[in-house]
Write a structure and sequence with these properties.
The chain is of the alpha+beta class and 700 residues long. The chain is built from 22 helices and 28 strands. It is 31% helix and 21% strand.
Length: 700
């Protein structure tokens, strides 16, 4: 900018057009060829990057999936960042072909075109499920010519006004559910297979659905462009400036009743803040915009700063690597891209000894650098894929500008071409050094159901996922006896988990299998068995044992699952959970999320322990306040009176206890429009105020 200003003095002696061209050239770099841009990629020692595909075979790639025959499908989004009328966009889905087996694409076929706002896809029954706001559609080639000739709307009603915040990131979980991000946007979603059913409002949530059962439900979120699920079903997602979050408690538990005080059940899992090591200078517009904003913050005496670089601001595409082509220590790592910083970031996930939340850490050799960085400012990594060859693939949108125009002041975007690069696109493959790529031939489509069971033990997760999906699609119950036998004899816990959900998908589970799962040596399998045990009341004795499991994830799931049982043993179990795990707010939420765990009976049982409220710790006051909040918000006359009677017991006479309970009761009453006036009269400034407030509540 300073250099360009100097040139203004030369306007009288130089042609204006040359001035403009020269200044713009300094502001924004020109595009590079695929080969030149590849040279600008810097990856950690021990790895190399190969070009897998580029223009003219692929443009503007945003999703890559390999079907059961190894066919590579890529979604192209050339219209971004401008909105296009549905059905009139230029979006495409291509099939990429490597005809000579050298590992590089040399041919492509347009599978579908004019697919507006398509952002993600999954193979299903020989076709593709595609998110294309406001719909999720199903495309299929029925005559074998490589082009889609069948299109069906599966779901409709999703938000569609901003391509950065639409339905996306389809992922098939090991539990047979397909998960998607919705960025919390409002939308009344309907399913074509259930005409007449009430539309589902998806505001504030992500969602999941099952193609085999035509069901759809909300899920904890919200995530943006980037979602991944690990081997054990733990779900993670990105949100622009937050590069990695974990959905800790699923929506189906947190909404068992409508009165749980908090609505946020996901959390950032990184231990290293949102810092990235960017090796390119911020673009002119971003540096200038940040400077202006920071100046305004300072003038307004706001303790706030906007970073123009070195902080995640365009995080996307989080992907758990579950292939077998990289060293074993990379298995289970999460890769996240940042389109603004031109980097690929790596996290190592580890369980916590004190919390059910996993911890994401930088690798030791990446403490001061990223797994990949580029000095080409057009490098825009958006997401990843793991192929049947076991390698990690990186999709490079390759644009001069990636920010939506609505976020940039008019004077700064006046000389910006937001479509520059819409005729380009690259996909890279990451390989260990000294590795020669070998083409992999795949055809699971023609494999027998028995053979597919073998693939559930494959070291590359791609095979396991495709095999389980195909078994779900086929519904071949003749394999059930073999699955049962393998579940009892397999030495690999991940294989046993897939087998468990194959049985679930074939509607062939039973209490005996679940009981084995609840006693499995693998924490991940015990955790999933608990979810399935909710369907079998006879498994309750084993479920009760797991509230003290050494794995915090298993213990949390036990607390959540107990709320699905109806039995007199549940209250004592919840008391034990609160006593032993109550310092952790996730366990408190797990108990309070159930109807039984948020009843006066729970407080009565805690009071009967005598010692529980003798030592009044902050977390106990927090728990009491939340429980009181729920009781008041529920506004059941019987529960309310019972609860007030318990609060009047001698064990609850401490002023801190009384105040915390009153705070919660006041919050709960405030949620009812007809009771807000009464809530306003509740005061806690003195002992007389507290006494008067309780008398008021009893009259209420």
């Amino acid at each position: 900018m300073k250099t360009c200003l100097k040139y203004k003095k030369a306007l009288l002696v130089l042609p204006f057009i040359f001035l403009v061209v020269d200044c713009l050239a300094q502001r924004y770099a020109a595009a590079l060829s695929p080969e030149e841009s590849l040279k600008k990629l810097n990856i950690v020692n021990g790895f190399s990057v190969q070009l897998f595909a580029s223009e003219p075979h692929v443009f503007d790639p945003v999703a890559l999936e390999f079907d059961e025959q190894g066919n590579a499908y890529v979604i192209e989004m050339p219209d971004y960042p401008y909105e296009v009328e549905p059905g009139k966009g230029h979006g495409r889905i291509r099939i990429l072909k490597d005809t000579d087996g050298d590992g590089k694409i040399d041919k492509s076929i347009i599978f579908a075109d004019n697919v507006t706002e398509a952002t993600s896809m999954l193979p299903w029954k020989g076709g593709l499920i595609v998110t294309a706001a406001p719909n999720i559609i199903y495309l299929k080639d029925t005559n074998g010519d490589g082009k889609s000739d069948s299109s069906e709307i599966l779901f409709s009603g999703f938000f569609q006004n901003n391509s950065e915040a639409q339905v996306t990131s389809l992922k098939l979980g090991v539990d047979n559910w397909i998960y998607a991000n919705n960025n919390g946007q409002s939308g009344k979603v309907t399913l074509s297979k259930t005409p007449g059913a009430a539309a589902v409002e998806v505001r504030g949530a992500d969602f999941r659905f099952r193609m085999d059962r035509n069901v759809f439900e909300l899920e904890t979120g919200p995530g943006q462009f980037g979602q991944t699920i690990d081997d054990w079903g733990h779900r993670f997602f990105t949100q622009n400036s937050i590069h990695l979050q974990q959905a800790v408690i699923p929506w189906r538990y947190t909404h068992r009743h409508a009165f749980l005080p908090t609505s946020k059940f996901n959390v950032t899992v990184t231990d290293h803040e949102e810092i990235m090591f960017q090796e390119t200078a911020p673009p002119y517009w971003r540096a200038e915009r940040s400077a202006r904003r920071n100046k305004a913050y300072k003038e307004s005496n706001l303790n706030r700063i906007e970073y123009a670089e070195d902080r995640f601001s365009g995080a996307s595409g989080s992907t758990v690597y579950n292939g077998d082509a990289m060293p074993k220590e990379f298995y289970g790592n999460i890769f996240t891209a940042d389109v603004s910083g031109h980097v690929v970031h790596r996290d190592i996930l580890s369980p916590s000894e004190t919390s059910p939340v996993l911890v994401a850490k930088r690798p030791e050799n990446e403490k001061d650098r990223e797994f990949i960085y580029s000095t080409d400012p057009w490098f825009r990594p958006v997401t990843f894929s793991v192929g049947p060859d076991g390698y990690l693939y990186i999709l490079d949108y390759y644009r001069q500008h990636i920010e939506t125009p609505v976020s940039i002041p008019d004077d700064l975007k006046a000389d910006m071409d937001f479509m520059a690069g819409s005729d380009m696109g690259r996909i890279y493959r990451v390989l260990p050094d000294n590795t020669t790529y070998k083409n992999v031939s795949v055809n699971l489509k023609d494999a027998s159901s028995v053979k597919l069971l073998d693939y559930l033990s494959h070291t590359n997760g791609w095979y396991r996922t495709q095999a389980q999906r195909l078994l779900l699609e086929r519904q071949d119950k003749s394999i059930v006896p073999m699955v049962n036998k393998l579940f009892s004899t397999s030495a690999d816990p991940i294989t046993r988990l897939h087998l468990l959900y194959v049985l679930e998908g074939l509607n062939s589970l039973n209490a005996s299998i679940i009981s084995k799962g609840l006693q499995d040596s693998s924490p991940g399998l015990r955790e999933n068995a608990l979810i399935l045990a909710e369907r079998y009341p006879e498994t309750l004795p084993l479920v009760l044992k797991l509230i003290n499991d050494p794995s915090k994830r298993v213990a949390l799931q036990a607390a959540l699952s107990l709320g699905e049982f109806k039995d007199q043993r549940i209250i004592p179990a919840f008391v034990e959970i609160i006593q032993k795990q109550g310092q952790n707010d996730w366990f408190r939420s797990a108990v309070l999320s159930s109807v039984t765990g948020s009843s006066p009976e729970l407080l009565k049982a805690l009071v009967s322990q005598n010692s529980f409220f003798q030592n009044v710790e902050p977390w106990k006051l927090s728990f009491l306040q939340d429980l009181s909040n729920i009781i008041a918000a529920r506004h059941s006359k019987t529960q309310f009176l019972t609860y007030l009677d318990i609060l009047s017991l001698p064990a609850m006479n401490g002023s801190n206890l009384q105040v915390s309970a009153l705070k919660g009761l006041k919050m709960g009453l405030n949620k009812n429009e007809t009771l807000k006036e009464t809530a306003a009269k509740i005061t806690m400034d003195s002992e007389s105020d507290i006494k008067a407030s309780y008398e008021l509540l009893k009259k209420l």
